[in-house]
Amino acid sequence: xxxxxxxxxxxxxxxxxxxxxxxxxxxxxxxxxxxxxxxxxxxxxxxxxxxxxxxxxxxxxxxxxxxxx
Length: 69
Fold this sequence. Notes:
- By secondary structure, the protein is an alpha+beta fold.
- It has one domain (19-68).
- The chain has helices at residues 19-29, 52-60; strands at 35-38, 65-68.
- Helix 2 links the parallel strand 1 (35-38) and strand 2 (65-68).
- The longest helix has 11 residues, at 19-29.
- It is globular, with a radius of gyration of 14 Å.
- The relative contact order is 0.20.
- The model has no long low-confidence stretch (mean pLDDT 82).
């Protein structure tokens, strides 16, 4: 990635009673500038609904969030 001029990418593993709070704490502690979240691979009309943790992240952060389906 560095040879291609891309920024470093780090994957973190954290444990928390409330996952969204753990994700937000880790993002702050590691000075993250982007969060990538899954939308839960649903189909049909339910595909329009994000996972509950993703919704909480979106509601409680100023960071950009990339939601991947």
